[in-house]
């Protein structure tokens, strides 16, 4: 006896297949640059200075336990 093939009935209506969305390319933005304090601080870090002044205030070099270098108001 040969089997009869019956069409499968769907129990619920499936949504239509959608096309994959492609990623949008981002436009490159022009960087705004660093402020004056930050440029002075980075320059002091690079040259290993113990302190620098900004707007009449002095900032001293300090380090954390794990070696992170930053400048703090003196």
What does the model show?
The protein has 74 residues and is of the alpha+beta class. It has a domain at 36-66. It is 15% helix and 22% strand. The protein is built from 1 helix and 3 strands. It has one helix at residues 36-46, and strands spanning 51-54, 57-63, 69-73. It has a 3-stranded antiparallel beta sheet with strand order 1-2-3, covered by helices on one side. A hairpin with a 5-residue loop joins strand 2 and strand 3 (69-73). The longest helix has 11 residues, at 36-46. The chain is rod-shaped. It starts with 35 loop residues before the first helix and ends with a strand. 3% of the residues are buried.
Output the keywords.
15% helix, rod-shaped, 74 residues, three-stranded antiparallel sheet, alpha+beta, single chain
* Beta-strand proportion: 15-25%
How would you classify the quaternary structure?
Answer: single chain
Class from secondary-structure proportions? alpha+beta
Number of helices: 1
Give the N-to-C terminal Cα separation. Answer: 97 Å
Low-confidence sequence ranges: none
Give the SSE order as H and E letters.
HEEE
Shape: rod-shaped
Q: Got a strand count?
A: 3
Strand order of the largest sheet: 1-2-3
Give helix % range.
10-25%
Q: Report on the biggest sheet.
A: 3 strands, antiparallel
What's the mean pLDDT score? 85
Radius of gyration: 32 Å
